[in-house]
Design goal:
Blueprint: H1 3-15, H2 18-69, H3 76-82, E1 88-94, E2 99-102, H4 114-117, E3 119-122, E4 125-128, H5 135-142, E5 148-156, E6 159-165, E7 171-181, E8 184-193, H6 198-230, H7 232-243, H8 261-312, H9 316-347, E9 356-359, H10 360-374, E10 379-384, E11 389-392, H11 394-411, E12 417-424, E13 428-435, H12 469-479, E14 483-488, E15 494-501
Parallel strand pairs: 10-12
Antiparallel strand pairs: 1-2, 1-8, 3-4, 5-6, 6-7, 7-8, 9-11, 12-13, 13-15, 14-15
Helix pairs in contact: 2-6, 8-9, 9-12, 10-11, 11-12
Subcellular location: Membrane
Main location: membrane
Enzyme class: transferase
């Protein structure tokens, strides 16, 4: 077979469905094993038969030798009495008497006449040309008959084994040996027909062929069943995947079954759909909230534009009020769009923190100064115990603290206090922004980081905001391997604590400097 055909066959096999490949592999391996086992049994049946016949012939020869050792007189009748198996026949030729004795009745097989013809005259005495029958001479003598030698084995000194085939598909095993007793020499030949079991072998062969055919058929059926059984979870995954759409993410695969790799695949697939469902829900909520937030300023701008069109051209007060409102809403939309772009980039992993060694105290002090410029009758205080350094993006950390500070200003009434503090422990750096404003209810604290979420909008109508600040703050802290802690009670203010891993000096630079320098 050419390489092209081999590649073509292999390629066709590779392109088959997995279930068909499993069926073919399982059925092929089982069928090959069955045929190999059947062939082994058939060959060994023939070998076992020959071993059994050989043992019977050897036993017969031993019985004759023992009879001669005990001084027995050879006759045709005595030979018959020495046979253990009636199907074994024996022929003994005495060279001293120049006479043959046979246990069988009727015509002697042609191959039994060969040993006497190997005798010649030597100094007036009968003698054997050699201790063993000469194969070439035996073949030459047998060629004159209808028999031929199929195999010849030397079993030892003065002993040979012949497998002979004759007319009518007859087959014989012949054991021939030389035996000496008190100067007399004997040629003992025991044989048995092997064709007696031919019908049994043919019957056994046909039964084995039928059994193999049934076994191969059952093997492919079993392979088909096993492949379907094994791939059932995969089929469920396929059908479930076909039913899943953006409008319906509730479909899941049944987890019943053994704890195997397929169950792990099913769990992984269901987990993936869970994440997709949550992501789609968040996306839909985000689009809905963004549309709502953008609709309000657009409606306000549209309303004031209509007002200007109707009366603002001739009324300076209406014109100025409309312009101020439009500018305010435009600024609100600008802030909203900027926050939306920030979150969209973070969702797409396009926003990356440019982290480096930085001093958290310096950023906190800058925020305190900027808040102090914006505050209206509020007391802003700052506290630091020691210099605190982290591996962070100074711009993002400043944006984070600004979000907390701006929220503190919004929710703290006139005369209130805002306190910013920086400290550290053995592992982490901390910065907190605390106020004594209205506080956050405990049940609301887990929701304040959701996008567009604003606690009790009906009571906070006068407080501007997009509801995206804390979502951005959460992403900034997460990108710095940190966490946000919230401590608050309704009516008792709120404290936001940002925790970051402390700056760790790289191994290569340790020992180069005795102390850390302050970074500004």
């Amino acid at each position: 077979m050419s390489k092209t055909n081999k590649k073509s066959l292999f390629g066709r096999f590779q392109n088959l469905a997995i279930a068909k490949r499993i069926t073919l592999i399982y059925g092929g391996i089982f069928s090959f094993s069955l045929l190999l086992l059947s062939g082994f049994f058939f060959v060994n049946t023939t070998i076992l038969e020959q071993n059994s016949v050989r043992k019977q012939l050897e036993t017969t020869i031993v019985n004759i030798e023992q009879f001669l050792d005990n001084g027995g007189t050879l006759t045709n009748e005595s030979l018959k009495d020495l046979l253990d198996n009636k199907y074994v026949e024996v022929s003994v030729f005495s060279y001293s008497e120049n006479e043959g004795f046979n246990s069988h009745v009727g015509e002697i097989p042609a191959f039994i006449k060969q040993p006497p013809q190997l005798i010649n005259e030597n100094n007036g005495e009968n003698s054997v040309l050699s201790g063993l029958l000469n194969k070439d001479e035996v073949i030459e003598e047998l060629s004159k008959t209808e028999y031929h030698i199929r195999s010849l084995k030397e079993l030892g000194v003065n002993r040979q084994e012949f497998i002979l085939e004759g007319p009518g598909e007859q087959k014989f095993m012949l054991l021939s040996t030389q035996y000496k007793k008190d100067g007399d020499k004997y040629q003992i030949q025991a044989f048995k027909q092997l064709n007696g079991n031919q019908d049994f072998l043919q019957s056994f062969l046909w039964k084995m062929v039928i059994a193999d055919f049934i076994g191969i058929f059952c093997a492919f059926l079993a392979g088909r069943y096993i492949s379907r059984r094994v791939l059932k979870p995969v089929e469920q995954i396929r059908t479930t995947a076909e039913r899943i759409s953006i409008e319906d993410l509730t479909q899941r695969i049944d987890l019943d079954g053994p704890d195997d790799e397929m169950k792990e695949l099913t769990i992984t697939f269901n987990s993936m759909i869970d994440r997709l469902e949550k992501a789609f829900h968040r996306q839909n909520q985000f689009v809905s909230d963004a549309s709502h937030e953008l609709r309000t300023p657009i409606s306000v701008i549209q309303g004031y534009a209509s007002l200007i069109n109707r009366w603002g051209k001739s009324n300076p007060d209406v014109l100025q009020e409309s312009i101020d409102s439009i500018l305010g809403e435009t600024e609100h939309m600008k802030e909203l769009i900027s926050n939306l772009l920030f979150l969209a980039k973070s969702d797409q992993n396009r926003m990356h923190a440019k982290r480096a060694r930085m001093c958290l105290n310096d950023v906190a002090q800058e925020i305190v100064k900027e808040l102090d410029l914006l505050q209206k009758d509020r007391q802003i205080t700052y506290e630091e115990a020691e210099q605190v350094e982290i591996n962070g993006d100074s711009d993002l950390i400043k944006q984070l603290l600004w979000i907390h500070g701006e929220n503190a200003l919004k929710y703290t009434t006139d005369g209130g206090k805002i306190h910013i503090k920086v400290w550290k422990d053995k592992k982490y750096a901390y910065v907190s922004v605390a106020d004594d404003g209205m506080g956050i209810a405990k049940e609301e604290q887990s929701k304040i980081f959701d996008r567009f979420y604003r606690e009790d909008k009906s009571r906070n109508k006068e407080i501007s905001g997009t509801g995206l600040g804390l979502s951005i703050a959460k992403w900034i802290v997460s990108s710095h391997d940190g966490a946000i802690l919230v401590e608050s009670k309704r009516g008792e203010g709120a404290t936001f604590i940002d925790r970051f891993p402390l700056w760790v000096e790289p191994e290569a630079k340790k020992g180069e400097t005795g102390k850390n320098t302050k970074i500004k």
